[in-house]
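Incident review: delayed structure delivery

Summary: a single-chain prediction request sat in the queue longer than the usual turnaround. Root cause was a stuck worker, restarted by the on-call engineer. No data loss occurred. The affected request and its eventual output are reproduced below so the record is complete for anyone auditing the incident later.

Affected input:
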Amino acid sequence: MRLFIDHHRVKLTWQTDWLCSQARLASIRKQHTAGRAGSTPREVDDLRGDDDRDMGKTGYFTHRDCWKHDMGGGHPECPQRLDAIEDRLLLTGVGDAMERGEVPLATLAQITRAHSVAHLEYLESLSQRLVADGPAGGPAHAMLDPDTYLMRDTLLAARRAAGAAIAATDAVIGGQLENAFCAVRPPGHHAGREQAMGFCFLNNVAIAARHALEVHGLDRVAVVDFDVHHGNGTENILAGDPRVLMVGIFQHPFFPYSDIDHPADNMLNLPVPAYTKGMDVRELIEMMWMPRLDAFRPQMIFVSAGFDAHRDDDLGQLNMNENDFAWITARIRDVAKHHAHGRIVSMLEGGYNLDALARSVELHLRELADL
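Output delivered after worker restart:
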């Protein structure tokens, strides 16, 4: 299976890539310093803005249908991921601070703001065939790529995950919540307008971003993606849309082996090689993401929260830990406070070491809820 084994290939060239990345980082540092020459340095705390009022609670959206998608024993994108998160929130008491929200099924109109009708019809036809053929001993799944299997309950789970994104967006924009996290699966950021791949079927973040723009009438939204894998599906859907700024940092070269050399003007990709340390990631984010986000002035921020860049996760080789994810979350929240009245909707993407995932989500939520 491609996603499971590609990381071994990366280890053969990581030393050269790491040296190149250090040179690139040094070059960025030099450009960044030169660009600030003659101007007053902006302090990190300036991004907190003047609006520090308490806008409300942090929402937590999940649904038992998201457990029903099961690609089989040994597959890393498994229902136990959500169990690990729930157990951690119960153990630490963080779950008690969350406002749990109802999760509807996403509708055709909501999904097709990001995906083609043909894509959804294709998934529905496969799902219906699996259900119809099941009693006669038919196959239990349809393979969409070597890592991605559509099961009989997959589309139900995917529509519920997208519905969580919609419900969280409505609640945050409506003022019932300051921000929200959606503990849902399957993940979404590899799903393009016409394609399911990389464990993903419907692109939850893209669906929610388009909902905020086209239903609620926002003018500018940002998408932040810190999964270890490039959010190629989100880029495919949102590239060229001037209402959206997408910033991402990810291991490269690595699955999905995207062509990142000529991104659209509204895309800011920060590819880093295997074994990049968390402090280097932080420095790149501070120098590259933050000025771009500040200049864009998003009215809401959507987060593809993938925790597979954790050093304990076998599906990536970045040397990050849960404290790095907490730091990134805090910086996202700074931008949201300054420009967006604190409005953030965060969607679970990757994260396959169950213990590391649970710890990382806990700290992510602590930052969102200011605990």
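Verification: Residues 2-17+54-369 form a domain with the Arginase; Chain A fold (CATH 3.40.800.20).
Action items: add queue-age alerting; document worker restart procedure.
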